Amino acid sequence: MRILGIDPGLADIGWGVVDFQSQRFQPVSYGVVRTKPSEDLQTRIMEVVSAISGIAGQYKVDCAAMEEIFFTGHSKTSAMNVSKVIGAVLCELGRMGVPCRLFSPVQIKSSITGYGQAEKKQVQEMAKIILGLKEIPRPDHAADALSAAICLGHFGATEARIGG
Predict the structure, then answer these.
(1) CATH of the domain at 116
(2) Is residue 74 annotated as a catalytic residue, yes or no?
(3) pLDDT mean by block of 10 residues, the chain; 164 residues
(4) Is residue 7 flagged as an active site residue?
(5) Which of 74, 107, 121, 158 has its CA 20 to 30 A from that of 114?
(6) Taking the CB of residue 118, how many other CB atoms lie within 10 A of it?
C-alpha cells in the first residue's frame, strides 16, 4: 500500500510518500509545498491543491493521511485558513478517488512513539528509525507528513487484524 502523508498549512505544507508492506515501511519521497504570503488566499489554496494532486498522481498513492488542525486559540485567522486548505485537499483527494483519513496530533504521536504527549523531536527521531533513514527528514513539515503516513499504516494494520 502506498500512503501519502500530509502536514497541512498555508505557507508550508509537508508531504511524504511511504510504502507499507508486510508491517514494514519504506520511504519513497518527501518534501514541502510553499506558497507566497503576498498571494491571495484563493490562489494559495489552489496552488496547494494542485501540488498535492500532482504528488498523489505522480506517486500513484492508494490512500492518504492528514494531520488534523491543532488549535490553541492564539491565531483564529491562521486556524481558519488552514481549515480551508484541509477542506480543499480533502475534496481534491476525494475527486481523485484517494481515501484520506484525518488523525489528531495525539494519535500520530501515540502511533509513532507509544506516547501521545511525546515531544516533536522524539516523533521525528522515531519516524527516522521506522523509515530506516540516516537523518531526520527536513524540513520539519516533511517529517510530520511522513509521521502521518506511518500512523495510517499502523492504524490500518491494526484495524485489519481486528476486522475493523
Answers:
(1) 3.30.420.10
(2) no
(3) 96 97 95 97 98 98 93 74 96 98 95 90 94 93 96 77 53
(4) yes
(5) 74
(6) 19
